[in-house]
Amino acid sequence: MIVPSYIAKVARAKKHLIDLPAAIDLFSGSHPYTVRERVEGKKKRKVWRLTFTADPANTDIPLIAADAIYNLRSSLDHLMSSLVPRNQRSSAMFPVYFEGVWEPSRPGEDKQRCKERRRWASDTKALSEPALAILKSLQPADGGGEEDGIDLLRLLYRLSNRDKHQKLPVVAAGLREPFVTYALPDGSEHRKVGSRAHPAFQNHADIRNLPDVAMNVKIEGTTAVALRVAGPEEHLPLPLFLWDAAERIESEVISPLLPFVRPSV
After folding, report:
1. Is 146 a residue whose pLDDT tops 60?
2. Taking the model in full, what pTM does it have?
3. Which of 133, 158, 163, 177 is a plausible cystine mate for 66, CB 3.0–4.6 Å?
């Protein structure tokens, strides 16, 4: 039995995601951060800041993540091709536009939105009403909110388009479950445990509540690697974001649309 290409594409993405933690662990294990002491402000306050000394952009992490994103994005287009008649399959693209894209253009609407409305009408004209209803439910909220539709798909498409032209914006977002050690002039050593938040310390974060006389300040933790994006999300944790994308594509996109797949011949 031949596995449909849209399912095989998601499986390939998951294979890359299995490889991704090893690349992240390799970067984290290199201890790519330090604590830098500075004197700041009008009061000349002594400040200790977490500072990353290496960049995950210089590792295999962006390449592995890009391969996973490519296959997830491609799986959606392959799925759309299986929903339309054979004579439309070479040009069909899975629609990720905005809620209400199926409605007529409004007076004064910008050209891009009008183009997306025309594309929606062209790519979905041969679909049944139940299939159309599912595609409509998957469109992101108009304006980019997350209350309706799957804004995750919009993020996925944005990252896929970014990867076509430049490396994905993978960054060291901070440290998870950090702990700080320091010494005092009397020779005693102390340990300060941070929050379990994700990440607890961001890059360049001020390590607070240390005595002014603290010496040999060091920090340890697990590096939080993420995709940097614009908007309220800001950082999408890796590999968690991409695992969530793969699972949601399977359960919320492929599974409901399977009954409407047309024969391949």
Report:
1. no
2. 0.87
3. 163
